[in-house]
Each structure stands twice: as C-alpha cells, then as structure tokens.
C-alpha cells in the first residue's frame, strides 16, 4: 500500500542496537516527538528501526518531557536491504533537492550522492538536513534501511574515482533515438546519474559518453523535472536489474 | 534537458487560436505575469501554446498594466500529443494531489481523473485549481498539450461506465509475486489506476481483479508515496506501450 500518514503506527529511526529485551534510551527530540507530538504514553507501542536490525515493536516504559525509555518486544520486519544502487544528482533548488532525496530513499537507493556539475558548480547543500530527509522518508514509508547522503562532490571527482566494476546509467535528452532501455547491461553494482535542470555541458556529455562503464538511457520525448526524472530512471533500473520482480 | 526555471524563455498557455500573423489579446492576469512579473516589454518574445497548434514565438506589440497584445511570428514546435493514456488516482492531501497532477502532465497523461474510493469517499477537490496546475506543468516543461483534469467521480462509476476497448493497469501491493511488467498486454487506449494511500478496500480489490480489461502490476517491495507511485507506474507503461522509444 502507498504510505499513509493517517493511521500509521508510529515509526522512528534510532541509532541504537535493537534486539529482544533491549532497552532504548530516547534523545530529547525523540521524546518530544513521541510524547509531545504523537501523545504516546507508558504501555504504547512504537516501531523502531536502525538500518541494520529490521523493525522492532517496542513498548514505552518511561515517558517524560525531555526523555524516555523503550524496550524491544518482538521483531516485526526483517532488514530489507535495497540493491547496491547509487543515485547521483545535481542539486539546485532546496525544495526540489529535498524531493529527490526522499524519492531516492523510497525507490531503493543504497547511497545518495549530490554533485556539482559544470552548470551548477556554485550550488551548496546542507548534508545533515538532506540526511534527515532520507531518514524521514524511510520512517514514513515503512523502510528498515536508510540510504547514506554523501557530502557534495564535483562530478569530475566522482568519475575520476570511479570504483572498478560499478556501472553507470545516465539520462541524456540529447540522445535522439535512444531507448528507455538498459539493453544488454548487467552486474550487481550500479549508479544512476540525473543531470541538472539545464543539462550537462558539452564537455561533460562527451566525457560521459566515452566512459566504458556508462550506459545512456532516454526518459522519453517530454521534458521532466529532476525529481520526476529520478523516479523514472530508478523505475527503469529496478525493473530491468533491481528487485522489482 | 530537465525543465529549468532559470533562463527559461517565457512560456504561456492561451485559449486562443495561434497561426502566422495571428493577434493575441491578453487577459488581465496574463498581462500582469508577462509585464509585471517577468518584466517583458514591447519587442520581447514569448512562447505561446494552446494545446492544439504547437508552440509559437510571439512578439509583444502592446504592454500595459492590465492588458497587452502579442503577434504570432513563427511556429517553434509542432503539437506533440501524448499517448491516449488516462491517469486515475484518489486524492487525499492537497499538496500530494497537486504533485500527482503535475507529474501526470509531465509524464504524458492525456486525461487526469480524480476518483473517490471506498477509503476516501469524503475527499473533495478543486477541479479548477488542479487544471491550473496541469497548465503550469506544461508551461514549465516545454509542453504543447495540456491534459484535461476531470471532475471528481466515484471509482465505482468510472468502472461501471468503462469504455469498450480501453485497458486498465492498476498497481496493488497485495499481489505477492506479481511483476513490474505489462506482459502480453497491448492496445492503444489505456488507463493507469493509482490507489489511495491506505489502499483499496477488499471489495474494490476483488472487483478490480475480476475485470477482463484490468492488468495488475507490482511497483516493487518498498512502499511508495502516491506521487512516486504515479511516476513509476507511468514509466512502466510508457516504456512498454507508450512513446518512450
């Protein structure tokens, strides 16, 4: 089912081991969220996950204004790792960047990498804020894994340091006649590169096309916003090579 | 390229015939947008489209506070019709509904149909506001066609009145083991149904599965927000049966 804010059991990401009988002390902002905002109290249940141990049903044993304690009762979901897929994109506007990070988390990216490109080399990000958005997307959509949001890097550097064995799918509207297909590509380790609104520079485009590990895919004849393009590209990949059955 | 707000030539949807030498009188809000907000003046160019005649470069001949006149100079894009695809969805939250309408327009829906389902039968919409969002998405993403946003109907009614020959793709997370594939389906006239956050009722699910024109498709093992699901579903369809090459 699509993730619903209404009637959702309360889910929270914690940086703490989870296991039967494990005691979880809450940080101030977590206590405020559970007891001040969501109005939970002693005896209520919360679903916790930490990105490693799946999801656990936990009972509230102490509920205060600025602190609290939960105890793990039973595992309710095993850890569901996404495929080994990186989502690389060029942030411009804050709101659109937030959407891209959320959708990348929903769609199963293992790692989210903001990059500066030739046309976007003065953009900046708040890595901590974007990481919080990825956590929130996982909390709201029932996820048990949270993708890491990397620090901003130059695309040139990411390509220069490219790890052996990882394939790259990039989407370039300038490719007239290319298909929305991954063709004969294979492999377990992949990355998807979504160019900036405004596109890649001619130098970047030439460089990308020359890379032996790069595969160009079309996203159709209409222009897409960057967050729409991210979901479309990830859908194509998940269908062809990922965990979409 | 992904649609960019920065450096975009000014594009405007008008409800007026377009053709060489055609004079276009502007309405008050259009004049305010072009001359007050975008600071254009006599001699500047604007790209106009009306959903029928493609895109035309038009010159400003009169620029006033509450009125203005443009003249069509040359066609810059032919009309690009989307496939005959309906996007049917269940609105809940206003912001999420706005996103779904915008993305449906970006992704090539010909018609956008908000419906009430068993779990969302008290929701309401502002059809005029949603139509304006579809227009805006087309303006911002270089489109020459604007999908119609229909009035809210009950899903039961839409299914009861289903036109002969149109196929339906619906996405149901309860289908364990179903693939993100359209399989052997074919045909020119289609609809995609995105269920509400909260899902279909058991009755609805049973009814949908019994329809001879319905095809169920999985959107993977992770829960998706409704606007993410809409883009993913439309990507699957466009790749398999649409105009994505």
What topology does this entry show?
The structure is a homodimer of 245-residue chains.
Chain A: E1 11-13, E2 23-26, H1 28-37, E3 45-49, E4 55-63, E5 68-77, E6 84-89, H2 94-106, E7 111-116, H3 127-140, E8 148-149, E9 153-154, H4 155-160, E10 167-171, E11 189-194, H5 202-210, E12 214-217, H6 226-241
Helix pairs in contact in A: 2-3, 2-6
Description of the molecule:
The structure is a homodimer of 245-residue chains. The first copy, chain A, has 245 residues and is α/β, with parallel strands linked by helices. Chain A folds into 2 domains: 11-77, Hypothetical PUA domain-like, domain 1 (Ribosomal Protein L25, Chain P, Beta Barrel); 84-241, 3-Layer(aba) Sandwich (Alpha/beta knot). Chain A is built from 6 helices and 12 strands. Residues 4-8 of chain A have low confidence and may be disordered. At the A-B interface, helix 6 of A face helix 2 and helix 6 of B.
Strand content of chain A: 25-35%
SS-based class of chain A: alpha/beta
Q: Biggest interface and its residues per chain?
A: A-B, 53 and 54 residues
Largest sheet of chain A: 7 strands, parallel
Oligomer: homodimer
Supply Rg of chain A. 20 Å
- CATH-assigned homologous superfamily of the largest domain in chain A: SPOUT methyltransferase, trefoil knot domain
Report the helical percentage of chain A. 25-40%
Task: Return residue spans of chain A where pLDDT drops below 50 for at least 5 consecutive residues.
Answer: 4-8
- Estimate the mean pLDDT confidence of chain A: 91
> How does CATH name the architecture of the largest domain in chain A?
3-Layer(aba) Sandwich
Tell me, briefly, the overall form of chain A: elongated
CATH class of the largest domain in chain A: Alpha Beta
How many helices of chain A does DSSP assign? Answer: 6
Return the domain count of chain A: 2
The tally of beta strands of chain A, per DSSP, is 12
Distance between the termini of chain A: 17 Å
CATH topology heading of the largest domain in chain A:
Alpha/beta knot
Order of helices and strands of chain A, N to C?
EEHEEEEHEHEEHEEHEH
């Amino acid at each position: 089912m699509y993730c619903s804010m209404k009637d959702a059991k309360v889910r929270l990401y914690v940086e703490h081991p989870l296991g039967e009988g494990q005691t979880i002390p809450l940080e101030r902002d977590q206590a405020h969220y559970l007891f001040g905002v969501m109005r939970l109290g002693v005896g209520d249940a919360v679903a916790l996950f930490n990105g490693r141990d799946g999801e656990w049903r936990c009972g509230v044993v102490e509920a205060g204004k600025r602190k609290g304690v939960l105890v793990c009762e039973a595992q309710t979901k095993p850890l569901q790792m996404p495929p080994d897929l990186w989502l690389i994109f060029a942030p411009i506007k804050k709101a659109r960047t937030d959407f891209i990070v959320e959708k990348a988390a929903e769609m199963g990216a293992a790692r989210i990498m903001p990059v500066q490109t030739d046309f976007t080399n003065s953009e900046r990000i708040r890595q901590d804020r974007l990481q919080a958005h990825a956590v929130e997307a996982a909390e709201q959509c029932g996820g048990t894994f949270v993708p890491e949001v990397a620090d901003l890097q130059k695309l040139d550097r990411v390509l220069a340091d490219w790890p052996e064995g990882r394939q790259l799918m990039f989407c370039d509207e300038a490719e007239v006649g290319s298909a929305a297909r991954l063709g004969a590509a294979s492999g377990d380790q992949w990355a998807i590169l979504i160019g900036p609104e405004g596109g890649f520079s001619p130098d970047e485009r030439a460089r990308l096309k020359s890379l032996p590990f790069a595969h160009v895919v079309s996203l159709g004849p209409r222009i897409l916003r960057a967050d729409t393009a991210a979901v479309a590209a990830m859908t194509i990949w998940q269908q062809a090579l990922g965990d979409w059955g």
